[in-house]
Amino acid sequence: RPRDQRILHLVLASMGVHAYEERVPLMLQDFAYRYQVGILADALALSPDNHLTAAHEPGSKKAAQQPAEPVVKAAAIRQAIGSRVAHQFCAGLPKEFLLELGMERNRTVLPRVEREFGVRLPAEKFCLTGTGWGL
């Protein structure tokens, strides 16, 4: 097994989880990779130092000597994590609140169903669907 999967197996075992499918650590590893790539991409976009400057413009001597590598600072990573946490990992509404909301909604009485409901048709003598048309 790869080192990351062994670590995930050890983490699950230390948390008391011993019965799980073999693909669970792979799924956790995939989730962690996607989350990390997303955070780094957001941090790279938020970092103010990664825009073109005069030293990195095409045709300058510095640009010909070494390619410009993007630099991600810790503040940009913190901001990227904060922006994701605000909308990605939000918990649902409390059960008590939803119960109270449902009770309040159910207090409203529904209108009674009338004795004659459905499509209103004229009397039988005016309908051409009866047996004795009388024409």
Q: What can you see in these coordinates?
A:
The chain is mainly alpha-helical and 135 residues long. Helices cover 47% and strands 0% of the residues. Helix 1 (3-14) crosses helix 2 (24-46) and helix 2 (24-46) packs across helix 4 (74-85). The longest helix has 23 residues, at 24-46. The chain starts with a helix and ends in a 29-residue tail after the last helix. InterPro entries: Histone-fold, TFIID-31, TFIID_subunit_9. Keywords: Nucleus, Transcription, Transcription regulation. Belongs to the TAF9 family.
**Could you say which structural class the secondary elements and strand pairing correspond to?**
mainly alpha
How many whole angstroms does the radius of gyration measure?
33 Å
CATH class of one domain: Mainly Alpha
Kindly report the name of the CATH homologous superfamily of one domain: Histone, subunit A
CATH architecture of one domain: Orthogonal Bundle
Task: Average the pLDDT over all residues and give the rounded result.
Answer: 81
Could you tell me the CATH topology label of one domain: Histone, subunit A
Tally of contiguous helical segments: 5
Order of helices and strands: HHHHH
Strand content: under 5%
Main beta sheet strand tally, sense and closure: none
Low-confidence spans: pLDDT under 50, at least 5 residues?
A: none
| Shape verdict | elongated
Q: Terminal Cα separation, in Å? A: 89 Å
Helical fraction equals 40-55%
Number of strands: 0
